[in-house]
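FAQ: What does a ligand-bound record look like?

Like this one, built around threonylcarbamoyladenylate:
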Amino acid sequence: METFIKTGEPSVIEEGAKIIKAGGIVGIPTETVYGLGADATNEKAVASVFTAKGRPQDNPLICHISSIDELDKIAYDDTGIAKYLFSIFSPGPLTLVLKKKDLVPDSVTAGLDTVAVRIPNHKTALEFIKKCGVPIAAPSANTSGRPSPTTAQDVYEDLQGKLPLIIDGGECGVGIESTVLDVSGEIPVILRPGMITAEDLLQHVDNVQLFRGRVLSAAPAPGMKYRHYAPNCDMVLSDSKEQTLSLYNNALENGKKPIILARSKNVDGYAEKNYIDMGFTDEEIAKNLYSALRKAEKISDYIISETVDDNGAGYSVMNRMRKAAGVK
Ligand code: TXA
Ligand code: MG
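The answer part, i.e. the structure of the complex:
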């Protein structure tokens, strides 16, 4: 199958919607990362998403909807907490886990009685979902285990030949995946940290629990037990400029081609070195992280990534950075 990248104008959105209605899969932009979309109500279409990504069957997908009004078709929100939180944070990078309704097949939820729902903050994505007229099940559009794609080209790199169309909506503004919040129990639990932080949520709900337990097969977010976001080469973390320089020099002595994913505040010390400037703020670093990993693995064989403070948005960045480096 030939894969086309086309910009998200109305005729292309129409073409994508036709593919979805016929049970096919389409690469779509969102504000976080690109998704690999299928009709969430069509078991066969959902199965081909798992096949294209090489995704384990027990890792459920997020259902994307275009407005709060569509929530009641797929999930129960007896307490109203989902509609309340969506009214504040959506469209945006917040995914809510709720008790599912029968319209959602077991293959989407990996047999769980809950479903993850999100309203992405991206014009093209919203128009596309509306045109499809069904909830769109979409994981990140990378090969399972690889860094998530933040451009249409990244999707092409991983999945060319496995889907007919990637809708190009430009570079993703957020760059890391949505916060996943389980609101199906008494206390909301953050299953995956993201740009909407516990601090943000605590402005609106009384309690939020962080999920930090050891990751076993019974992990609440089934995807958390798998290796994620991994580049094709070795990667280590560095907490300071001094550590970075010493790791860099050691790597050179060992015949490696190191590269630094550098915080902007440190780069003036790296003039003679190979580095990618990641930005000053946690938000900038989040936005650049996956594209930097994909770029670095092509020109180097040893990535030294400078860490950020482990709180607020930095907590979500460090969650991805540690996993990419294979830190348990
Ligand atoms: O930003 C995002 O969320 C992107 C864009 C495309 O929307 N999507 C994304 O999907 O990151 P994916 O499939 O790569 O990650 C979904 C995460 C996984 O960790 C999965 O285990 C968890 O959400 N998840 C999905 N359904 C769940 C459920 N019913 N209960 C608990 N966790 C669930
Ligand atoms: Mg993913």
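Follow-up question: can I read anything off the structure? Yes, for example: The pocket of threonylcarbamoyladenylate (ligand 1) is lined by residues 30, 32-33, 35, 59-62, 93, 95, 97, 109, 112, 114-116, 118, 120, 138-140, 177-178, 180, 191-192, 220-224 (CB under 6 Å).
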